[in-house]
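Task card 7
Instruction: Convert sequence to structure tokens.
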Amino acid sequence: MPRALNDFTTCDPSPYETTIFGFDFALDLGLGETITSVSFFCNVAQSSIAIDATPSARLLGSPSISGTIVSQLGGTFVAGVTYQIGATITTSQGQTITGYANTICEAIQS
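Output:
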């Protein structure tokens, strides 16, 4: 699962908005195989009008595993930046699998 089929929805730069990002690795696991650990990453994929020197700081708290789904809370994104958010899992069969998708940060227009 290198790249997800769909990107995440647009996120807001408000310091009060948080978003849960998740991936379902069901199609990547063998029969009886489970996810034993997960780590998330956040990189700048593209920046049109702003700079984010610390994109990994957008990941808040610890990631979680629920069956075949992994998730991570994110927030305090910078407007004008497209982020690449991804997860790397290890499995009970010794696989290491990474998936990622993008999210664009845009201020909500009122």
